[in-house]
Amino acid sequence: LPRLVREFVAQNNTSQIKHVIQILSQEFALSQHPHSRKGGLIGLAACSIALGKDSGLYLKELIEPVLTCFNDADSRLRYYACEALYNIVKVARGSVLPHFNVLFDGLSKLAADPDPNVKSGSELLDRLLKDIVTESNQFDLVGFIPLLRERIYSNNQYARQFIISWILVLESVPDINLLDYLPEILDGLFQILGDNSKEIRKMCEVALGEFLKEIKKNPSNVKFAEMANILVIHCQAADDLIQLTAMCWMREFIQLAGRVMLPYSSGILTAVLPCLSYDDRKKNIKEVANVCNQSLMKLVIPEDDEMDEAKPSMTIPAEPTSEESLSRPEAVTAGESQNELDVTLNQPLFFSRSCERIQVTLNLDGIVQVLDYHLSDTSIGMMTRIAVLKWLYHLYIKTPRKMFRHTDSLFPILLRTLSDESDEVILKDLELLAEIASSPAGQTEEGHGPSDGSDVRPGPVELHVPARPGQLSSSSTKGLECSPSTPTMNSYFYKFMINLLKRFSSERKLLETRGAFIIRQLCLLLNAENIFHSMADILLREEDLKFASTMVHTLNTILLTSSELFQLRNQLKDLKTPESRNLFCCLYRSWCHNPVTTVSLCFLTQNYKHAYDLIQKFGDLEVTVDFLTEVDKLVQLIECPIFTYLRLQLLDVKNNPYLIKALYGLLMLLPQSSAFQLLSHRLQCVPNPELMQTTDNTKPSTSFKRTAACNIDYTELLQHFEKVQNKHLEARHQRAGRAEQLDRRVVL
Fold first, then answer.
1. Which of 668, 648, 556, 669 is nearest to 606 (CA)?
2. C-alpha distances out from residue 360 to 157, 220, 259, 260, 350, Å
3. Which candidate, 80, 82, 22, places its Cα nearest to that of 47?
4. N or C, which end of the chain has less CB nearby within 10 Å?
5. Are 663 and 679 in contact (CB under 8 A)?
6. What's the rounded Cα separation, in Å, for the pair 67 and 738?
7. What is the pLDDT confidence band of residue 604, given thresholds at 50, 70 and 90?
């Protein structure tokens, strides 16, 4: 047969050569008899050898019948077919590349063949084909990628090993740029990375590592946007190693691509945020996720707050949706060293395959939706909640105008977060609420609430301030919204104060355990004067009198004891300015809900005569155990450093007679207790006024001068106190009456 073929070649008798090949194919290789098929395969191989370099002209006729025998049920026939194709390819060399796809398809099937001899033969053919591809510069990568994309999803271990080996070969060829087609095969690579075979996983790890190195070398040639969604999906894999590898890729993508990744922020945050609460068993994933989170956050800039229509947006595939057909992998190994956690963010903000500089629009709605979901989910870990609050704070700093569109929907969630078990979460929540309450972007033209026509999503709770005419005088409103000593608070400040008090009213445990902590932190973050002024104004019209009394007591304790309020105490102590007197009057009217706190406020502001007048009214009040307990606490406070100036004023008996009378009044209210003994001993130390006289009697009383300058109508304040106490008395009688009726019903 070879001699015959060589004669035809010498005669250039093409038709006879084709005739010989046709007979070998149709009558032998494709025969029903197995021995005929073997003979046909041997004959085709011999024919190819005889043709030599001219075999390239007849490759289609030579290869097709051999590939058909790859599917033969007889393993010996499959082996003969593999051997025949090896000889054909060896002779033709580079001429077989136009037929590469069919050869690759056939080899991928033989790679999973159960017969070891067939598999061994296919490996020899595979190595030969790889050598040919490596040597040639005519490989059709574009035509091959669809087949590779299809076969990469095979579940057979040997087929996967075959696929990865070819990817490694193609990646190593300088003339073949497989990186351009990485988006086509990246998902399949992550699928293979979850294989049960350690060897296959290691091969896939190497392949991914090589791709990542290439990406770092040539970031301008990488299609980051087309691979972002793939990474988002695999960053949420159940297997730790798959998740770690995908997260490492995501970290590099964010740092290399910069703002190109912003349109995918919501998907990235969905994958990254839960990882921040991982324990030490997943420490590596947690660390890389934290770097991703920080890097992504730094991509948001103030320019993102500009009008959307003024910025041309970048055409990038949308965020991943539930309809996407990408399946989730099961396992993974890391594609690179985990020690490279130090990041540098000095990368260009834009990458494009062309030289154009393309602007990217921030998908703020999607980001807020993800943050909202993670903050509302009670099963989310503490570190994730902290990260969410940091993100929201960062967005309010960088893009306040856009963020205030979402404030009404976020507000109830932020208020609920104040009940969190973690102090750190509450601190971050308070920082965010303080920023919302003080940001100029939150100012609206209406009084204390946001505009009804604002472009916001409706929240589950109505948070607008109820409009009650005549409740706020123009002076108190002016003093609340804009104090000369503080910057103007925005429309959400008063709204925040109202809803914070509502929260305390509905959750008394929150008030008891965290109330003081929350208010003290707010006094640090915002202006203490505005906070006390607004809360006092709100409590003045509180219908739940018992809560109002409790809240006033809490605020009074904070005012008298917290180091954060030192400046406010000094301001109230002297009442030198109209603002301080306005604040005192506002506090006084609300403090009247609690008689003892009202007296302590008078002590703080050195209104001793009025304190004495109030104590005189105590005889008309219902003296309860709680009342006496509060008097006891006031006596203890008088002995604290806060009232050092008051104790020193006891030396000036002549100018402070009402102070001494007020203290004696408290003493008379107390039963024979430790507080009684304490105050009694203090009053015993008051000196004889005759012994304390000095030669200089020309100086007027400082107390009289300050009181005269205050210009406060104390008669009206005293009448207001009586009015409020009568309300409390009626409320107690009503509660007692309802309790008595309930008892009668039970008896009946």
1. 648
2. 42, 16, 7, 6, 8
3. 22
4. C
5. yes
6. 95
7. very high
Q: What are phi and psi of 726, to 5 degrees?
A: -65, -40
pTM: 0.80
In the block, which residue shows the tokens 């977060």? 417
Give the single-character DSSP code of 356.
-
Half-sphere exposure of 251 (CA within 13 A, CB side): 25
Torsion of CA 705, 708, 712, 718, to 10 degrees: 90
Domains and CATH numbers, the chain: 1-138 (1.25.10.10), 364-442 (1.25.10)
Three-class SS of 380-414:
CCHHHHHHHHHHHHHHHHHCHHHHCCCHHHHHHHH
What's the CA gap between 445 and 551, in Å, rounded?
31
pLDDT band at residue 137 using 50, 70 and 90 as cut-offs: confident
Cβ count near 361 (within 10 Å): 16
Place of tokens 């194709």: 85
- What's the whole-number mean pLDDT along residues 505-527? 93
Instruction: Count Cβ atoms within 10 A of the Cβ of residue 384 and give its class: 0-12 exposed, 13-18 middle, 19 or more buried.
Output: buried
Q: 240: which 2 tokens? A: 């730790």
SS3 assignment, position 142: helix
Nearest CA among 427, 432, 438 for reference residue 518:
427
Number of Cβ atoms within 10 Å of the Cβ of 339? 6
Please give the torsion angle defined by the CA atoms of residues 251, 255, 259 and 260, in that order, rounded to the nearest 10 degrees.
-70
Do the Cβ atoms of 505 and 547 come closer than 8 Å? yes
The single-letter code of the amino acid at 313 is S
